[in-house]
Amino acid sequence: MWREAGLGGVRVLIDAGPTYEDIDPVRFLGNRSSGKMGFAVAAAAAEAGAQVSLVAGPVALATPPGVARRIDVRSARQMHAAVMDAVADADVFIAAAAVADWRVADYSPRKIKKGPTGAPTLVLIENPDILADVAARDPRPFVVGFAAETDRVAEHAREKLERKKLDMLAANRVDEHAGIAADDNALELIWPGGGESLPRAPKAELARALVARIAAHYQAWKPV
Ligand code: C5P
After folding, report:
1. How far is the CA of 120 from the centre of ligand 1 (A)?
2. Which residue from 4, 163, 172, 189 puts its CA 20 to 30 A from 146's CA?
């Protein structure tokens, strides 16, 4: 089915993986994202005929076959800059990255030492929201977000779809068996006025199902 509603010639921009927020030259704040889901989506989109650009946080993953361009970044601000640089040429934007919500306010260019004053206090400041910034553009691509939730998945996902003004959102429950950094995943796919559950499957399989839904919705949404 997804082959009919494919992505032939469609320019798809995807961000994936975690971001690292440096504290000093040897320490950082990170998260458990492996980038596997975003890379699987990039592979599936390329397979469906899209021209894929992939902005990757720090991950240990090879570029999937068929991906036209990969830009490696480390921090949320670098990821934001790379996405904003590429988004004007994108028809579809898929935000699969686990972007750090906060960064350290004062990066220390020297390694912070233990000392008589005790443990340091880290002051955090908010990072830009890449997904919301892309969705606020005019004109803008078809925008797909991800949401990892530990509770009330559907409710939080619907709220996020509306608040960030997304065309589609793929939400998953994060627990010890599935979700972040795991090989399997299940997704609650929602869009304004509808939704569909994609049952638990290996990430490659799930990514193909997701890309098929994105292709169908994009074809109906795209400006003529
Ligand atoms: O609000 P929350 O962080 O749960 O939203 C998750 C979605 O927003 C994901 O698609 C993620 O890539 C995106 N996001 C972003 N920039 C941020 C935070 C989240 O693009 N600073």
Report:
1. 28
2. 4
The catalytic residue positions are: 31
Residue 41 falls inside a structural domain: yes
Assess if residue 151 is contained within a domain: yes
Taking 60 as the threshold, does the pLDDT of residue 216 lie above it?
Answer: yes
For residue 176 the two structure tokens come to: 């010890």
Say if 2 falls within a structural domain: no
Q: Are strands 168-173 and 184-191 parallel, antiparallel or unpaired?
A: antiparallel
pTM over 0.70: yes
Separation between Cα atoms, residue 178 and residue 60, nearest integer Å: 19
Which neighbouring-strand residues pair with 173? 149
What SS3 state is found at 53?
strand
Number of compact structural domains in the chain: 1
Q: Is residue 6 part of a domain?
A: no
